[in-house]
Design brief:
Number of helices: 7
Strand order of the largest sheet: 2-1-3-4-5
Largest sheet: 5 strands, parallel
Distance between the termini: 16 Å
Number of strands: 5
CATH superfamily: Response regulator
Radius of gyration: 15 Å
Order of helices and strands: HEHEHEHEHEHH
Number of domains: 1
CATH architecture: 3-Layer(aba) Sandwich
CATH topology: Rossmann fold
Structural class: alpha/beta
Shape: globular
């Protein structure tokens, strides 16, 4: 047995969901539940909690209980710190800027779309995200900076 493939199947992909609306978070959870890749989902419901998690501050200081995400699913309209500011701070941090970010939002404004891509988002999806669109997004997203995600998606 090839140990590299074995370890890929044993270690789940870490996904950080930043979403303040419980119904939208549940849609994402349900879609991920049937996706054929092992994952660990961490859900935070405001932008400040997302930054605390990513920067390992306050309740998220321990890297064992708060591992770096391999993928971030980010709403733009968040309490405390909005999603565009979260994107901006991620891009300014060398340890975080390579993490693929998918924006899941209700905002269809051109300025939000442009700003999100300018700040490093890999994809911009309008909510509610249906199952087919969500799984297609995960299947086809460019995760080139996250080899573990790309390998897992291609091996499953």
């Amino acid at each position: 047995m090839n140990n590299e493939n074995f370890s890929l199947k044993e270690v789940p992909i870490n996904i950080l969901l930043v979403e303040d609306e419980p119904a939208h978070a549940e849609i994402v959870r349900r879609n991920l539940a049937v996706f054929p890749v092992s994952h660990r989902l961490v859900h935070v419901d405001d932008g400040q909690m997302a930054l605390d998690y990513l920067l390992r501050q306050d309740a998220y200081e321990d890297p064992l209980s708060s591992p770096r995400p391999d993928l971030i699913l980010l709403d733009l309209r968040l309490p405390k710190v909005d999603g565009l500011e979260v994107l901006r701070q991620i891009q300014e941090n060398q340890d975080l800027k390579g993490i693929p970010i998918v924006v899941l939002t209700t905002s269809s404004t051109d300025s939000d779309l442009t700003a999100a891509y300018r700040l490093g988002a890999r994809s911009y999806q309008l909510k509610p995200v249906n199952f087919e669109g969500f799984t297609e997004l995960l299947d086809t997203s460019d995760h080139s900076s996250q080899p573990r995600v790309r390998q897992r998606l291609s091996h499953e």
